[in-house]
From TrEMBL:
Assigned keywords, A-Z: Coiled coil
DUF1553 domain: residues covered: 520-785
InterPro entries: Cyt_c-like_dom_sf, Cyt_c_Planctomycete-type, DUF1549, DUF1553
Coiled coil: 392-419
Keyword Coiled coil: yes
Protein name: Planctomycete cytochrome C
Species of origin: Roseimaritima multifibrata
Boundaries of every Cytochrome C Planctomycete-type domain copy: 65-118
Keyword Glycosyltransferase found: no
Length: 841
């Protein structure tokens, strides 16, 4: 029976099956069964559809072959590399898959010959084997990995229908959609857009006045004008800074068991100001990596290098200083690699990278750039030198006055020494002091008395100067040792096993800078921002896109290597990156491009189930993105909507509401949480004190700040509601928001007659403050029913009403009846927890 059916089967299957031996039908039947299970067409791929090596072949090889036949010499088998063209040529005959050992190994029925070997737990499916066969038969064209190619702006596509095109972003996106026969979504409602824009660019909802101003503007460029106003808001820099702080692993403590406090917050404030001042991204890069090495470096440029010193510091007993220092330098190197290169350098601590063309030696060449730090690794000092004192402007002014006074006293001593003594008495004038009589009189005195009085004044001023200088925060910054330190490859990454000496240098697969006499961090920084560098602009643009759209054009924002995602909108990414680089690394211009596109303005509603099935993750960008707001933004939104949000920016981090005992339990009682009061309770989340061993309890889905994090984690669990329904911040915000809509002052400001104000009007005002729109009829009905139930319940239990309206430290408006206030507090808390409120629509 088997012999009778084989000829018929052979006539129906693609050529790859014919390569199997007729004398051994097992592999034929195995592949045929797989093909039929997949429902795949049993015909050859069309010659009109050439195989794309970068998109179709390299991911297969990377996932299944590179571990044993890739860059890592330690795990490479049989001396064969499949990650390079030269290596692959050893087992590939172009245009002849039947004669190619690579293909024959994939279809072999001999377990000793089959690749990948069964013991690897890897297996290619039939479609992947067919793609490799077709690729070989089409000439086995080999291409460099997409992100390592030179960055050249592709041509902007032209489309016949330009009605939904506002800038080149739309041209790239809509050309892709047209190829898939998918229509872009229409623009979102104006109220949705204004809230979306404010949240994305400031992290705060628009005020009712800001929404009304935008809706009333009928000019053609009303939206663009709104974008420009928001980009000039101080809140813009605070929003942009959050993601950078996570990438820079910023925190207010060292971490580890001791977790001592540090004063890196002036660097945090510098990041905010840099975004607000639109410091070009190339300078933003240069200053943070090597500002101290610039000619005549300013204090601001030196302060920027605090970026590299944000790593954790280990002060645990028994730790070896040299081991600590090696860990710190590795952290600096790997953070640089993730933030600017989008590569996983940490894979190379111990061996060559298993997937990307990065060697163990090249890792330690990067290491050598940062290895010149004078930091010894000793102790857990949270202000380990080198440091930079960063006084506030107020303190700087006060010190200037005090130093001028000290100089005056010094000069008086000099003048006194020059006086001619006449009978032991000298005429001398000095200010009132303990021995003088009368943050101005005249008398005759002998020389000793005059000198004593001046010195007492001198000492008093110096004491004030010393006290103020001691209170100045000291930011850990970068510096290089005067005598160069030798750097070595460390066997398995162990500090005490140096092997071959290395000097600072660059990976061979990337363009190298011109040779210099001395390669230092400034050389490294300039290399990163060189126009010829293929990665820096791509990686930066992708992260800004991730920040605005919720998902990067490259989903694996931390990995642009061969294991990372090939972006579905590759041409768009390349064009944006090249334009960003060529336009002077202008961040605000880039953000403006993104948010003024139709792609950004689209409605997030799903047009049809069919489109959703074809693109559930919206990678083709046929609709606006919708995602859960980060927890820090949810908190800031609640504070802003209620009017509680403090306008104070910068300065030392603050301790807001937190359940008792959290720090104490995590630190074995060594760290005591002392809550702040007053407006500090309502500062933006950016300024909340961040302890590494236990992050602020209100911030779920946030980076740990223990290492560099560039991708955003989002989850949606019932545990989140424990915060947003019960945390003091949210209940207090709901209570104050209720006061806003109930107080007569608020009614006058909005032009509503207090005597005719209805529940429906009040509900609309809650919605305007939170969601920038009025409530729908259905929402009105549901909320009115809930409000009436609450009124009844609180009339029965007035003590519960009193307890609810006493939550939080903000003073309650006692002119509002407590029962009515409690009922409206419940309604406002419900609105703050609506799905629409917690999401960016």
């Amino acid at each position: 029976m088997m012999e009778e059916t084989l000829p018929a089967i052979h006539s129906a299957v693609p050529p790859l099956l014919l390569a199997c031996s007729m004398h051994s039908p097992a592999p034929l039947l195995r592949l045929l069964s797989l093909l039929l299970t997949m429902g795949w067409f049993l015909g050859p791929l069309s010659a009109a559809d050439p195989i794309d090596f970068a998109k179709d072949i390299r991911p297969i090889l990377s996932e299944n072959c590179f571990f044993c036949h890739g860059p890592d010499t330690e795990t490479r088998e049989a001396g064969l590399r499949l990650d390079t063209s030269a290596g692959a040529d050893e087992v590939i005959e172009a245009n002849a898959s039947e004669e190619s050992e690579l293909f024959q190994r994939l279809i072999s029925d001999d377990a000793d010959m089959l690749m990948p070997p069964p013991s690897s737990n890897r297996q290619l499916n039939a479609q992947q084997i067919a793609q490799i066969k077709e690729w070989i038969d089409q000439g086995a064209n080999w291409e460099q990995h997409w992100s390592f190619k030179p960055l050249i702006a592709p041509a902007i596509p032209t489309l016949p229908d330009t009605s939904l095109i506002r800038n080149p972003i739309d041209q790239f996106v809509q050309s892709q959609l047209a190829a898939q026969n998918i229509q872009p979504s229409p623009a979102a409602a104006q109220t949705t857009l204004v809230r979306r824009l404010f949240l994305d660019l400031t992290g705060l909802p628009p005020t009712p006045e800001q929404t009304a101003e935008f809706l009333a503007d009928v000019s053609e460029d009303a939206y663009e004008q709104l974008v420009d106003r928001i980009l000039e808001s101080p809140a813009y820099g605070e929003r942009m800074a959050w993601n950078w702080l996570e990438a820079a692993r910023y925190a207010d403590t060292n971490g580890y068991q001791g977790d001592n406090e540090r004063t890196m917050w002036p660097w945090r404030d510098w990041v905010v100001q840099s975004f607000n001042n639109n410091l070009p991204y190339d300078q933003f890069t240069l200053w943070q990596l090597a500002g101290d090495l610039l000619p005549d470096a300013t204090n601001e440029q030196i302060l920027a290098t605090g970026f590299a010193r944000n790593h954790m510091i280990n002060g645990e007993g028994g730790r070896i200083a040299a081991e600590n220092r090696a860990e710190y330098v590795m952290d600096m190197s790997e953070t640089m690699g993730t933030v600017w290169l989008g590569l996983t350098l940490n894979c190379c601590r111990c061996h060559d990278h298993k997937y990307d063309p990065l060697t163990n030696e090249e890792y330690y060449q990067f290491f050598a750039f940062f290895d010149q730090t004078p930091v010894t690794g000793a102790g857990g000092n949270a202000q380990t030198p080198p440091t930079l004192p960063v006084p506030s402007q107020k303190t700087a002014n006060e010190l200037e006055v005090l130093r001028a006074q000290l100089q005056t006293h010094n000069q008086r001593l000099k003048d006194l020494a020059k006086q001619t003594i006449d009978g032991g008495q000298i005429p001398f004038s000095f200010p009132k002091s303990t021995d003088a009589v009368i943050r101005n009189g005249f008398r005759q005195a002998d020389r000793a008395t005059a000198e004593l009085a001046i010195k007492q004044d001198q000492q008093a001023v110096q004491a004030k100067i010393t006290a103020k200088e001691k209170a100045i925060p000291k930011v850990m910054v970068m510096a290089d040792m005067k005598e160069p330190r030798e750097s070595f490859i460390l066997e398995r990454g162990l500090y005490n096993k140096p092997t071959v000496q290395v000097t600072a240098g660059f990976p061979k697969f990337l363009p190298a800078p011109e040779p210099t006499e001395k390669a230092d961090r400034l050389t490294l920084a300039k290399w990163l921002i060189d126009p010829e560098h293929p990665l820096t602009a791509r990686v930066a643009v992708n992260r800004f896109w991730l920040q605005i759209f919720g998902t990067g054009l490259v989903k694996t924002a931390e990995d642009f290597g061969v294991q990372g995602e090939i972006p579905p909108q590759l041409n768009l990414l390349n064009w944006l990156a090249a334009d960003f680089r060529d336009s002077g690394w202008d961040v605000k211009r880039l953000i403006r491009q993104m948010v003024t596109s139709h792609t950004y303005r689209q409605s997030s509603r799903i047009a049809s189930p069919e489109i959703y099935e074809r693109d559930p993750e919206n990678r083709l960008l046929a609709r606006g993105s919708r995602y859960r707001l980060p927890s820090w933004m949810i908190r800031d939104q609640a504070l802003a909507a209620s009017g509680l949000l403090s306008s104070v920016s910068g300065g030392p981090s603050v301790n807001t509401y937190q359940p008792p005992g959290v720090w104490e339990e995590a630190s074995f009682g060594k760290k005591k949480y002392v809550q702040d009061h007053g407006e500090k309770l309502y500062r933006r989340s950016l300024y909340v004190f961040w302890r590494r061993i236990v992050a602020p309890t209100m911030f779920f889905d946030s980076a740990s700040r223990q290492s560099c994090t560039v991708n955003i984690q989002r989850t949606n669990t019932p545990l989140h509601a424990l915060q947003t329904l019960n945390n003091t911040t949210y209940v207090e915000a709901a209570r104050v928001l209720a006061e806003k809509v109930l107080a007569e002052k608020d009614l006058v400001e909005t032009g509503i007659d207090p005597t005719s104000d209805s529940d429906a009007q009040k509900i609309d005002r809650v919605f305007q403050r939170v969601l920038a729109r009025p409530a729908t009829a259905t929402e009105q009905q549901a909320l009115q029913a809930g409000l009436d139930r609450s009124r009844t319940q609180f009339h029965r239990t007035p003590d519960a009403a009193t307890e609810l309206t006493a939550i939080g430290e903000a003073a309650r408006d006692t002119s509002i009846p407590v029962v009515e206030h409690a009922a409206w507090t419940g309604l406002c808390l419900a609105v703050l927890n609506l799905d629409e409120t917690l999401n960016r629509e």
